[in-house]
Amino acid sequence: MWGLGTVLGPVIGGAFTDSSAGWRWAFYINLPIGALIAPVLIFLIPDFDAQKGKPYLERFKQIDWIGIVLLTGSIVSLILALTFGGNEFPWKSGQVIGTFVCFGNLPPK
User: What Cα–Cα distance (Å) separates residue 51 from each residue in 21, 48, 59, 61, 65?
Assistant: First the structure.
């Protein structure tokens, strides 16, 4: 289904954009589809608790907060480099190269 949605989504969205309905209907069409699928997701997919019986505070302490911060900083650096490179700054500028270097060295390994 994911592959089908990946292929058909842009095609259907493009058809809405070129039609008299307009591009907004590419978003509005998702509302009735989501309303039809929501009961299936709520009632038919079983619950799964990988850490049954473990308190939420213990689960909260297991989260790698430093890794989350480092990964977020890395992704932001990549997006900044790709956004600013060639638009705001030349690709060989220190700002763009620095954000690429930050992206390459920041992710937790």
Answer: 48, 9, 8, 13, 19
DSSP 48: -
Q: What pLDDT score does 109 carry?
A: 61
The four Cα atoms 10, 15, 19, 21 give a dihedral, to 10 degrees, of -60
Q: pTM (2 decimals)?
A: 0.56
Residue 68 gets the label, from left (phi > 0), alpha (psi -120 to 50) or beta, of: alpha
Structure tokens at 6: 């990946």
In a domain, 50, yes or no: no
Section 75-86 average pLDDT: 93
Q: Total domain count for the chain?
A: 2
User: Which residue intervals of 19-55 are DSSP H helices?
Assistant: 25-28, 30-43
The two structure tokens encoding residue 59: 């689960």
User: Given the structure tokens 């989504």, which residue do they identify?
Assistant: 9
Q: How far apart are the first and last CA of the chain?
A: 33
